[in-house]
Amino acid sequence: MNQPRTEQFTTWTQDFAERLNAAAGALLGFDGGRVVVSPRADARPGLLGRLVVFVELPDGASVGLELSEVVPGRSTWLSHHGLGVSYRRGRDGADPMTQPAARRFLDGVRQRVTSLTPEALARSVAGFIRALEAAERGREVGDWMYRQLSMGIDGHYGTLRLGFRCNQDCGFCWQSRTWPEPELDVFMRWLDEMAAAGVGELTVTGGEPTLYKGLPQLLERAIRVHGMRVQLQTNAIRLRKAAFVQQLVDTGLEWLFVSLHSPDPTVSDRMTRAPGTWQGTVAGVEQALAHGLRVQLNCVVERANLAQLRDHARFVVERFVRPTPNNPIVSVTYSNPCSYYDASLWQDAVAPLDEVGPEVRAATAILAEAGVAVDVVGSSCGFPPCVFREAPEFIVWADRAEFDTMDVSGRFFPPECDGCAVRDRCLGVRREYYELRGGAGLRPFDSVPEEAREHSALGAMFAAEARSA
Questions:
Q1: Residue 202: which of 194, 211, 210, 214 has the closest Cα?
Q2: Is residue 211 within 8 Å of 274, Cβ to Cβ?
Q3: What spatial distance separates the first Cα and last Cα of the chain, rounded to whole Å?
Q4: In what order do the strands lie in the sheet with 50-56?
Q5: What is the spatial distance between Cα 384 and Cα 411, in angstroms, rounded to a whole number?
Q6: Which residue intervals of 159-274 are DSSP H helices?
């Protein structure tokens, strides 16, 4: 597969600027200028506070405006229905009253603001505040958090994260729930750009993507218009309702990647920090299978569920394989967690690899005996191959050079890996893990095990389906 072209991709930063420009223009009555906003003072959520807006005019002139709620005793150049506006020198230091273009701009601001009814002014101010707060929250959000191209052992794929809202609050999650959420038209544009760049495999995730109102439209465009193979990553809680599952099926969706971390509701709810949601996930998986969707499961391995991994595998077989022989669970992934957004949870949650190995290997064997494919090594969320030294048939080799730099930037080879015969086929160890647990569980290979594979079982299945289509 050729490398997708990324030079034509627009960025989330551009969208922040465009939306802030549009909201400021709607409030102040201008078009064609560029807005630069200084940090606010006296701000509370949903309120304007006091802030300075610099508007760069098309002819190069710059005008500064101070916006605030009207406060008794504070003089302003313009006051209308609770909004106060004052002008100041632009970023170039020039007095706007000495520049014809700047004076015309200020006249337009006065005419626009004073023409608004109280209701219209309130709507314009509210829209500006929403755009401003999104821009402020977005300062810690990189563009890659929403839209990403990656390379894995089975080829290139795209990822769209539909914001970060979620009906669970997993302690091991790397995301903040306060990061801003793009509008549907932003995702649609990114989707079109991905298709134009040659992306044929797409992962749609979040947060919890089923909470995103525009999900069905986005899926339909990806599948029906662009012909992409789409996998939806979800906790499946909303899929417990048959009507919603049918809506997704009608878009052409075929594949789900569902998070289920324990067979025990109590342990699961403790890990997801969302009491009562385990039942929803299980019911959602059952509905998905009943509607013909192909389901893969994901289980993040940490101390809380480590001793239950064998029971997890047995639960999957008894609940999702044997009752549905015509459409059983396709695969299970046991994932090695990366750093948590709440860093205080990391130290107690992460299990040493020498303790993880026996439990993951045993769970993998149970699933394999039932005909369920298992992915545990070789992906960006996989364990180092030496965890499966005693079960090399479950190892999938990975070429670090082929993976997206972002996916492997947090991995390295500590001294314990010196002299390992498979070092060129391994992604390394997570830095945050090594800083906490050291080399526990890392055992270099003396030779390359012949039983290991070059591609994941699921990747081979996809390739076979593509050839027969």
A1: 194
A2: no
A3: 18
A4: 34-37, 50-56, 62-69, 83-88, 78-80
A5: 10
A6: 184-196, 215-220, 242-250, 265-272
Rg value, the chain, Cα: 27
- pLDDT band of residue 60 (cuts 50, 70, 90) is confident
Name residues whose C-beta falls within 8 Å of residue 303's C-beta, 6 or more positions apart in sequence: 348, 349, 350, 351
Angstrom distances, CA of residue 414 to CA of 113, 388, 435, 444, 451: 63, 18, 10, 11, 25
Q: What value, to the nearest 5°, has the Cα angle with vertex 220 and ends 455 and 332?
A: 30
Of 199-213, 309-323, 333-347, minimum mean pLDDT range: 333-347
Pairing of strands 155-161, 147-152: antiparallel
Label residue 276 exposed, middle or buried (CB < 10 Å: 0-12, 13-18, 19+): exposed
Query: Under a CB-based contact definition with an 8 Å cutoff, are residues 218 and 190 in contact?
Result: no
* CA-based nearest residue to 259, from 159, 173, 321: 173
Do 87 and 96 meet the contact criterion of CB atoms below 8 Å apart?
Answer: yes
Which residues on neighbouring strands pair with residue 69, listed in sequence order? 83
Alpha carbon distance 182, 171 (integer Å): 24
3-state class (DSSP) for residue 152:
strand
Its pTM stands at 0.76
- Amino acid sitting at position 409: S
Strand, coil or helix: 377: strand
Residue 299, beta-bridge partner list: 334
Q: Which two tokens stand for residue 332?
A: 């299970």
Do residues 443 and 386 touch, judged by C-beta distance below 8 A? yes
CA torsion angle 321 324 325 326 (round to 10): -130
Instruction: For tokens 């999104």, name the residue.
Output: 134
How many whole angstroms separate alpha carbon 381 and alpha carbon 411? 11
* Nearest to 180, CA basis, from 143, 225, 227: 143
* Number of other residues whose CB lies within 10 A of the CB of residue 183: 12
Report pLDDT digits (tens) over 249-261.
999 999 999 999 9
Question: What is residue 272's three-state secondary structure?
Answer: helix
